[in-house]
Design goal:
Elements: H1 2-14, H2 19-32, H3 35-41, E1 49-50, E2 61-65, H4 95-101, H5 104-120, E3 125-127, H6 150-165, E4 170-176, E5 189-191, H7 194-201, H8 203-210, E6 216-219, E7 223-224, E8 227-228, H9 233-243, E9 249-251, H10 260-265, H11 294-301, H12 307-323, H13 338-351, E10 353-357, E11 371-375, H14 400-407, E12 412-416, H15 436-449, E13 452-458, H16 481-491, E14 495-500, E15 515-519, H17 526-535, E16 571-573, H18 582-588, E17 605-612, E18 616-617, E19 622-631, E20 637-647, E21 658-667, E22 672-680, E23 686-688, E24 693-695, E25 699-708, E26 711-720
Helix pairs in contact: 2-12, 4-13, 5-6, 5-13, 6-8, 13-17, 14-17, 15-16
The structure holds beta-D-glucopyranose.
């Protein structure tokens, strides 16, 4: 009989499971599992796996970072690389670059390709994407996220997740929630209003759950209102699993669980990384002592916790398995194929943002015989390695220098470093031992002889730069770059700056340089994508997914002093409330250096015939907005139509305007297109703290139609009845 049950179970697992009969099958399996087997499934057995039940053929779950490619294999019980030779992959552009494309179709291609690589590498959960909101330019992990606007992040994250999951691999949405800085991330307690929580910090998570149907979510390290977010009554039980109906698995961040009772009661399903800080230290064989291991079993046995709590966790874990490693029709996946490189290159090309272009400095004619000085460490440094858990072992990484050399084959290319950072080291900064003055002098000499200077600088993935675990120390460029750029500008007027970073930087030298390009961490195809834009093969169409303030104190979080950022070591107060990013700049009339949504092209566009279909609308109706776009310049290109909405005479505090719709349009030279965008009237509601619900205010609203948050072509007044 027992054998029969086991065989039946295996057959059940193998069979294709539809949503309807899945729960019954899970109940059946649950009945077969012992207390120890169930307990085992709720916590790690190694750095990146949780155990299965070998006796019943229930597989282990294997996880990997995320979110820009599949991370190299990590050893069973330490943070060293396992030393495999078959784990180098396609590195995709960082999520900031993806967000800058403003192109959800590319997010879908990204997710699909990355999911295929994860599947080929036999991963069941890919630890990404991250949608923590860009609150301060100092956050060391901004490069892994999708910018400062909840609507943009929500729109881009949904197709990314669907793309991953169609491969039978679960995305793991992180870091839920309010992990918006790395400094003190393990304990800082965030105090934020309900309104900002629901309007700014949660919408992208909500879309990932309710629209993309994400199968797993990662809790965060920090606290919210005095409770750790990985086992949090209101965030997880009430909102995520309650209100939004999340039926998947809540995975802890590595070492973010702190208590057995809270983990059991408040929604943690799989505990990972306890005894580590997520990145460095490791207590060998600590697994039996995890909060959800022996201590959990003992509390159940003593009757202090109900076994039903454990059953709910196991039910969720099995559900994730039926969707991934126990699904019989899982695709096979593929890796390092030309199509994936093509996806990576396309996203990189569309994500690059042209910020300044005096006298059409860019594009640079690739067929001209000339001398080009390529200056800067970021022209040659590997930027897929480092940065913390998102580090990648790319099979190939085309550096900007290599990209320029290949595309500008008729030119003489001379490279000079100009500055160097020290070697990457997690947890500390090792200054370079090279003499800074000699590096500057050598670069200036090369610049003087050249017809044109292309400077590749910005940040890198070293500690205190764009790196997990801590924040940047200032918004200025590091390693003496401001001084270097000023000297280069004096040596050669033909200077273009290409900034590689995942964060805004100060640009005191801006008036002295002819062109500025914001290139992000672009992955395997970085050099090809950058050379594509510089040569004009690709017409830039990226838009900034976050504001670049002139100086740090112009940023909302920073303008309220240290209690707002980074806090007093224990608690921080999000005093800017809902006015994050451009919402702050617009409302307070503080001009940014470069605004949210801004980005230039080698051609020009004109928006015309902008109108709404009606003048007044009721609840649940769609506001249809039509607009003609004409490519009025000399090259084919793409423009992003952006629609913002602001409430006039609101009875509550409001941002001047908020992004509510966008659409990217590609047009050949001289071409015209009619675009139609729609906004659901209900999406104009604010979160009312007095009723803990959304509240749609009646009255007049302004619809702003333009091509950046600070480039509005027309405002249309409408009324909500
Ligand atoms: C990070 C997570 C990551 C995990 C596993 C943690 O330090 O915060 O984003 O997925 O480590 O590497």
């Amino acid at each position: 009989m027992r054998r029969f049950v086991v065989v039946l179970l295996v057959l059940l697992i193998g069979a294709q499971v539809t949503a309807n009969d899945m729960d019954a099958k899970i109940d059946n399996i649950l009945k077969q599992l012992t207390l120890d087997e169930k307990i085992a499934m709720t916590h790690a057995q190694s750095k990146f796996s949780s155990p299965g039940v070998p006796r019943l053929g229930i597989p282990e779950i294997w996880m990997s970072d995320g979110p820009h490619g599949v991370r190299a294999e990590i050893a069973w019980d330490s943070w060293s690389h396992a030393g495999w030779t078959s784990d180098s992959i396609t590195a995709f552009p960082a999520l900031t670059a993806l967000a800058a494309t403003f192109n959800p179709e590319l997010a879908s291609q990204y997710g699909t390709a990355l999911g295929e690589e994860a599947r080929y590498r036999k991963k069941d959960i890919l630890l990404g994407p991250g949608v923590n909101i860009y609150r301060t330019p100092l956050n060391g992990r901004n490069f892994e996220y999708m910018g400062e606007d909840p609507f943009l992040a929500a729109t881009m994250v949904v197709p990314y997740i669907k793309g991953i999951q169609q491969n039978g691999v679960s995305a793991c949405l992180k870091h839920y929630a309010l992990n918006n800085q790395e400094q003190w991330r393990g304990h800082i307690n965030v105090e934020v209003s309900d309104r900002a929580l629901h309007e700014i910090y949660l919408p992208a998570y909500k879309a990932a759950v309710t629209e993309a149907g994400v199968w797993s979510v990662m809790g965060a390290y920090n606290q919210f209102r005095g409770q750790h977010t990985t086992h949090h009554k209101s965030l997880i039980n009430d909102i995520l699993k309650g209100e939004w109906g999340f039926d998947g698995v809540l995975v802890s961040d590595w070492g973010s669980a702190h208590d057995t009772r809270e983990s059991a009661l408040y929604g943690l399903d799989i505990e990972m990384g306890t005894g580590t800080d997520g990145l460095t230290t490791s207590n060998e064989n600590a697994y039996d002592y995890y909060f959800l291991a022996k201590p959990f079993r003992e509390m159940i046995q003593k009757g202090e916790l109900d076994e039903a709590l454990l059953d709910d966790k196991v039910r969720r874990i099995l559900r994730l398995m039926f969707r991934t490693n126990m699904s019989s029709d899982r695709p096979l996946g593929r890796m390092n194929n030309p199509a994936h490189l093509e996806v990576a290159r396309k996203i990189a090309g569309e994500g690059i943002v042209l910020l300044k272009n005096r006298k059409s400095f860019f594009p640079v004619n690739p067929d001209k015989k000339m001398t080009i000085a390529v200056i800067g460490e970021n022209a040659v440094k590997s930027l897929t390695a480092g940065g913390g858990s998102s580090e990648l072992k790319a099979r190939d990484e085309v550096s900007p220098l290599r990209g320029i050399q290949e595309r500008f084959a008729s030119a003489e290319i001379i490279h000079s470093l100009g500055y160097v950072s020290g070697p990457p080291q997690y947890g500390s900064v090792i200054p370079s031992t090279q003499d800074a003055d000699s590096l500057i002098n050598a670069a200036v000499k090369v610049a003087m002889k050249a017809d044109l200077v292309l400077y590749f600088g910005g940040l890198n993935k070293n500690w205190n730069q764009d790196c997990e675990g801590d924040d940047r120390n200032s918004m200025a460029l590091p390693f003496g770059q401001d001084q270097l750029i000023n000297k280069l500008a004096r040596a050669n007027k033909n200077l273009g700056v290409i900034l590689v970073s995942g964060n805004a930087v100060e640009m005191p030298w801006l008036p002295e340089v002819k062109g500025v390009i914001q290139a992000w961490y672009l992955g395997s195809e970085a050099g090809h994508a950058i050379a594509g834009v510089i040569s004009g093969d690709v017409n830039p169409s990226g838009k900034l997914p976050f504001s670049f303030p002139v100086k740090l104190s112009d940023n909302a979080a920073h303008s309220f002093g240290e209690l707002s950022y980074p806090g007093d070591g224990k608690t921080q107060y999000y005093k800017e409330d809902i006015l994050v990013g451009y919402r702050w700049h617009d409302t307070q009339k503080i001009k940014p250096l470069f605004a949210f949504g801004y980005g230039m092209s080698y051609t020009s566009f004109k928006l015309s015939s902008i109108k709404t279909d009606k003048k007044s609308y009721g609840t649940g109706e769609l506001i249809n907005i039509s607009c003609k776009v004409t490519n009025t310049g000399k090259a084919a290109g793409s423009e992003v139509i952006q629609i913002y909405v602001g409430k006039l005479n609101s009875k509550v505090k409001r941002a001047a305007k908020e992004l509510k719709a966008f659409q990217k349009v590609h047009l050949s030279k001289g071409e015209k297109a009619s675009t139609k965008l729609a906004i659901d009237v209900n999406d104009l509601a604010f979160y009312d703290e007095t009723t803990s619900n959304w509240n749609l205010e009646k009255g007049d609203y302004l619809i702003y139609v333009g091509t950046a948050s600070n480039k509005i072509s027309k405002k249309v007044k409408i009324r909500i009845n």
